[in-house]
Design brief:
Layout (H helix, E strand, L loop, with lengths): L5 H4 L9 H12 L9 H12 L9 H21 L3
Length: 84
Amino acid sequence: MYNAMDSYLDVDTWHTSHPLDDQRFYKALSKIVRDPKFSPEAMGEYIRDKKGVSRDDNGDVFNNVIDRRITEAYAIQEFVRLGL
């Protein structure tokens, strides 16, 4: 399921806050967020594994971006769950 994120991750600028990167993230997330088995934490682990980012490196820019995307995914998942 999480390979839907590849369209976002396969672009060199995936970790930036550029509007196009945000758009790619949200578009990829929209393909999986409604799946009852979807987990923002598992999505984050998929991203870390694919990009070779350690969860333990709190100072790593990539790790911080992944944490932000996990937080966004939780918020969007809740929004969808509530039918808003």
